[in-house]
Amino acid sequence: MNVSLRQLRVFQAVLEHGGFSRAGAALGLTQPAVSRAVRELEQALELRLFDRTTREVVATAAGLRLQGKLTRVLDELEDALQAARLEGAQAHGVVHVASSPTLSASLMPLLLARCRQHYPQLRLVLHDQVQRLNIEAVQNGLVDFGLVVEPDAATPLESEPLLEDDFWLVCRRDHALAGQAAAHWTQLSGQPLVLLDHSSGSRRLIDGLLEQHGVDCEVAQQLGHSQSVFRMVAAGQGVSISPGLAMPLPAGSDLRVLPLLPAARRRIVLIKRPHRSLSPLAQRVWRLALEMRRELAQAARPDAWGA
Amino acid sequence: MNVSLRQLRVFQAVLEHGGFSRAGAALGLTQPAVSRAVRELEQALELRLFDRTTREVVATAAGLRLQGKLTRVLDELEDALQAARLEGAQAHGVVHVASSPTLSASLMPLLLARCRQHYPQLRLVLHDQVQRLNIEAVQNGLVDFGLVVEPDAATPLESEPLLEDDFWLVCRRDHALAGQAAAHWTQLSGQPLVLLDHSSGSRRLIDGLLEQHGVDCEVAQQLGHSQSVFRMVAAGQGVSISPGLAMPLPAGSDLRVLPLLPAARRRIVLIKRPHRSLSPLAQRVWRLALEMRRELAQAARPDAWGA
DNA sequence: TAAAAATACTCCATAGGTATTTTAT
DNA sequence: ATAAAATACCTATGGAGTATTTTTA
Description:
Chain A is of the alpha/beta class. Chain A has helices at 5-17, 20-27, 31-45, 61-89, 101-106, 108-118, 131-139, 201-212, 226-234, 280-291, 293-298; strands at 50-52, 57-59, 93-99, 122-128, 145-149, 158-172, 183-184, 193-196, 219-223, 240-243, 255-261, 265-272. Chain A contains eleven helices and twelve strands. The longest helix of chain A has 29 residues, at 61-89.
């Protein structure tokens, strides 16, 4: 059964226009091309479809019967393909993005705003939850993609770096280190620390950095949210190490932020299921985020906005 | 929209078999061919249909949606084409044949019997009517084809000779000419004739022959049916000129049949609309009639069956 | 490391075009 | 005589094959 869509479309055009030359003109083909297509179709079906003289082309009974069924089916086929094609082009629908709390507060508002500008028809649903749940949501396909702290390399995910976010020292203005332009990691030894707990993706990195620099100190408090951490520091419970994106500090709190040396940072990445393509719509949002890289990086610079 | 059926079938096969190699095997294609077909389809739709690793091929959401619509539509298309194809091959249905009275009585029974043998599923409807109506029925497409005395060459019809049917002289056994082995046309001069009327296709020919041979005689009687003619001859109303196919003579009638010299004959032909194809079924009957030529010719030889 | 898809290339079949012939009105 | 389809022939594109490379579990 070697019938092609091309042949069927030619067949229809001949019926519609009542002639091979006219049908050809309508299709952008020459008369011999039409002639051949019809002949091939007739041979494939072992059935004469047209009775043709040089003056007129008349469909046979069989041709008319075929035409009846064909128009409907071919129209449906066109619709199905058109629907598929539009799916790739259309700009409305829903995209689900998982994002860690700090990022939901700092980066996502920027992305959402931009998204609204570019794709007003697109609804972006934010899944604001902790690192582990974000990763699971991505892996299970519950969300289109995630915006998280770079996970362990062993995690089966595909990730795309978005920006780097430095760690800063946060302390009270009356703290011993507050006067310095910058603080060295070793200077943290002996200082009571107030940190985010392990539900945060950064905590793992901070633990690693402290160990790496041989810092010997105790975690006096650990909390789920950065703002709580800052309050604790303001209340004199110790100093904190915080990524830039977790700022700004609570208004009116008497805290200082200083660079840590040597500089250390976490990577913020977009993640998605490995070897799974994003929906066309999700792709747009993903790309939009990447295009915003420079702009987003600004949000991670407390020194730039003078805190 | 340059999508081919081929590509869609490949797409379906990949979904069904869950792999390019397997799909290829099922379709009788190689893996690279499948790979290419899928890629082409994806490019045509500007849409990713499969997420593929070397270990597994998974349809994307868009792919699955397309699949849903496609299976139904493609099945319908196959059905439509299959129905068309079968139409050319199937052996049941109705064929309408117009036939002149003499032929309905002589040739058609033979054709009908043979038809029943070869195509028991086929119903052959006989339209037994006079020449003019037969021709009109064919021209108007009321019947598939006709079996008639060869009409005037100017008649817009396509005809195929089937057999030739000699004219014979029919007279009473006690008639002056009855003793001869054959009769010459000129010997008919002065004889009262009993002939078929002009509703018969042969009458025109007989008139022509009489004039051609300069026969000077009167038509004593003209009738619509051959059997009536023979009765008239038996009743002594005159002699008759009759084609072989109009025989046999009525049983028990004391008539003789002798050849006319020089031999004259009418041609029995199959006729159909010019430049119109026969339905596949009608074609079979038409061809069957042509295959029976020799056999049918026997029915036109009263000498052979010794009347 | 093995199994499967992607890629590179080569070849042939098919589709389309131009030029010409045939045919019906 | 004209208009349209059929035919012949040529070219270019595309589809399929083999061989090879890449990739992931």
